[in-house]
Structures are given as C-alpha cells and as structure tokens.
Design brief:
The protein is α+β, with helices and mostly antiparallel strands and 257 residues long. It has nine helices and six strands, in the order ααβαβαααββαββαα. The strands form three sheets. It has a two-stranded antiparallel ribbon with strand order 1-2. Strands 3-4 form a two-stranded antiparallel ribbon. Helix 2 packs across helix 8 and helix 6 runs antiparallel to helix 8. It is extended and about 85 Å long. The termini are far apart.
C-alpha cells in the first residue's frame, strides 16, 4: 500500500472514531444540557447536597474515595457528621460505602451501580461539563411503563436506574411537538407536563438538585477551591515580584549606560 492508501485508511479510521463518539454522545445526551449552578464555595449548598447524597444516592452508589471526616472541609463538625450522615458505618474515618450489596444490585439493575466519587469529572463531554450533564440527567426522569424500573430519562435514554428523587420531584411526562424536517415528520421535545406533584415545588427541586450536583463536583476534587485560592495569591506574588525585579534591573544598569 502506498502513502496515499495509508492516508485514506487513516482518514477512514478518524471518521469512524468520530462517528462512534458522536453516536455515544447522542445516545446519552440527546437533549441540550442545562447549565448547572457552580457554587462549590457555598458551604450551605454543599452541606445540603451532602445530605441529599447520603439520603438518596448512597443506598445504591458508593463514594469509595471519600471519607466522611473530609466533610469537615465544608463546615460540618464531627458530631454533625456522626448524628446525621453515618448510615452505612459507625466510624467517621470510613469511606462512603453503598448500603446495597453489589451482587444484589447487579441482579436487580443488570449492572453494579457506579462509584460516584469522580462522576462529576468523568461525565464532561462535547455538550457541556460534568456538572451540566448531572444537573440535566437528574431533572429529566419520566415515567415509562415499558422499562423494567418504570422510569426513563431524556439525557440517558433507557437508563437502568429508577428516579432516585421522584418523591421530591413528583411524576412528569415529556411533551413533544411534530416538526417537518427534510420532508419527514420528527418529534421535538418542548417541555414537561406534571402528572403528580412531589414534596418540593419545581423551583425548590431544581435548587436541591443544584446543591446535590455542587456536592458531587466538590467531592471529585475537595482541594479545588484551596488550589484556586492559592493560585490567585501565587499569581499576585509573581506580578509584584516581576515589577520589583524590573525596577531593580533598571536601577542596576542605569549607571552602565
């Protein structure tokens, strides 16, 4: 095979890889991602998100790389952690393990629920950041009697898990409108219809999901805020040092000229 043949083959491989990536993105993110609130400096939001995570996510999912005592970084005391958040262990130094047996989870859902420690960092894609994906995913569940769990999701079609926050959100169904595109009728998602109310209003639910996503984002890199804060001071120091070095250099060479 000559160089031209190799080039054509290489281009075909690139096109195929791009097609597979686009297909994966379309299957898991068929709708536009909503912008997640970025409030990882808001301790109240992080504390509320940690509470939601422990109560609604930790039953099936683990956070095996996060220890309970690390929650002191978001303003919780050791006593508050022990009294309100320790459900799967009695030691504050233990990691966040799921309450469900992984073998049973695999039998019920067809696969072991993934660990969520780094989920906010791993779900970033072409459509938005990892928090954007999670914020959209957690708010786009709907009832679907054709699915084994009775639930489906617009951001992740045919998802294997039920809606963990359905009691807070209530039950909704997506509303579609038909639109002609290139001579073919297609269904376009236009919004939601509330079928049964939840314990929270839509605004309260969105705020709660935002707090949960903030916590998941913080959990993926607890030192992020410290790193950014230290980085700002380092840049300021370098700016001041550069100015001082520039003036010293001018003072040193003024007599030489």
């Amino acid at each position: 095979m000559n160089i031209t043949g190799y080039a054509k083959k290489f281009l075909l491989v690139l096109v195929a890889a791009a097609g597979m990536a686009a297909g994966a993105h379309a299957s898991e993110g068929g709708i536009a991602l909503d912008r997640a609130p970025n409030k990882t400096n808001d301790l109240q939001s992080l504390q509320h998100g940690a509470k939601i995570f422990v109560n609604y996510c930790l039953g099936c999912h683990s956070a095996a790389f996060m220890r309970y005592n690390r929650l002191q970084d978001i303003g919780l005391t050791e006593k508050q952690i022990k009294d309100n958040l320790l459900f799967t262990t009695d030691k504050v130094g233990e990691t966040m393990k799921a309450a469900m047996d992984p073998k049973q989870a695999k039998e019920w859902f067809g696969g072991t629920p993934p660990d969520l420690t780094l989920i906010a960092r791993s779900r970033a894609g072409m459509g938005g950041s990892g928090p954007d994906y999670l914020y959209t995913f957690l708010r786009t569940f709907y009832r679907d009697d054709t699915r084994p769990t009775g639930w489906n999701n617009l951001a992740f079609p045919n998802v294997g898990m039920p809606n963990p926050l359905w009691q807070l959100q209530g039950e909704r169904r997506p509303v579609y409108a038909q639109r002609e595109e290139h001579g073919h009728a297609t269904q376009v998602f236009t919004g939601w219809e509330q079928v049964a109310p939840g314990t929270l209003s839509p605004l309260q639910f969105d705020q709660s999901v935002g707090d949960l996503v903030n916590y998941l984002q913080w959990m993926g890199e607890p030192a992020q805020n410290t790193r950014v804060r230290v980085g700002v001071w380092v840049l300021l120091f370098l700016a001041v040092f550069t100015f001082i070095a520039w003036r010293l250099n001018a003072a040193y060479w003024k007599d030489v000229r």
